[in-house]
TrEMBL record:
The keyword Ligase applies. Residues 2-225 form the DNA/pantothenate metabolism flavoprotein C-terminal domain. Keywords: Ligase. Pfam families: DFP. It comes from the Bacteria. One of its GO terms (biological process) is coenzyme A biosynthetic process. This is Phosphopantothenate--cysteine ligase.
């Protein structure tokens, strides 16, 4: 099979030296890519600079992206040419529009006009005590996947922070339905540590509880290679 995997995290530039990013390492994406390669599949890994990635392999195609826009441009073409898409990359929810002094914002009579401005300097001055950064929402790329390829098998990820288990599962079920996904891997940041990663694999049949990155990768692999949807791995409800 041809497997498409995203990993790591995007960075949205504020200026030439600053950006908004996240703490995603790409470790789980690395494990997934290596597992599918070891089992004889072709893997395209779309990842960010500095993220974990497998060793070079004849069946591995590696593509680096940095921003949401560059990721979207790459995925729109790749999704059409793969059978399975595992979207584990942490994608920025917002992108910078304009950064300016607080005094400029307070003096403005129409804040909407500031949204039409852009920073052209290579490095925004740090002389002011306070700066205001305007952000705009980025596209939810997972919502576009089935439009690009209705037949692709889609595994998405959902990360929340310190929420009740049932809330995490409900958000994952909503994403599963909304994005027409086969699986959603639901995580809580408070349950992710260096040697432990509790997650729930949520499908239409129920969910599986897993407690480490290798276990998550193995469970996703088993779901992907299973052609018999009437006999999925045992799930809780």
């Amino acid at each position: 099979m041809k497997i498409l995997i995203t990993s790591g995290g995007t960075t949205e530039p504020i200026d030439a030296v600053r950006g908004i990013t996240n703490h995603a390492t790409g470790r789980l994406g690395q494990l997934l890519a290596q597992l599918f390669l070891d089992k004889g599949h072709q893997v395209t890994l779309v990842t960010s600079p500095g993220s974990y990635r497998p060793e070079k392999h004849k069946r591995l195609k590696l593509i680096e992206v940095s921003t949401v826009n560059s990721l979207q441009n790459v995925l729109e073409h790749l999704v059409k040419d793969h059978q399975v898409f595992i979207h584990s990359m942490a994608v920025s929810d917002y992108s910078p529009v304009y950064m300016t002094d607080l005094e400029d914002v307070m003096a403005s009579k129409d804040l909407s006009q500031l949204l039409k401005r852009h920073n052209h300097q290579g490095k925004i001055s740090s002389s002011s005590d306070y700066q205001v950064l305007f952000l705009k929402k980025t596209p939810k790329l997972i919502s576009l996947v089935k439009k690009w390829n209705p037949d692709i098998r889609l595994i998405g990820f959902k990360l929340l922070v310190n929420v009740p288990k049932e809330q995490l599962l409900q958000v994952a079920r909503t994403s599963l339905h909304k994005n027409q996904a086969d699986l959603i891997v639901a995580n809580d940041l408070y349950q992710i540590k260096q040697d432990q990663h509790q997650a729930y694999l949520v499908s239409a049949e129920g969910y599986q509880t897993l407690t480490s990155k290798p276990a998550i990768a193995q469970a996703i692999y088993e779901r992907v290679i299973s052609n018999d949807k009437n006999h999925p791995p045992r799930c809780q409800r």
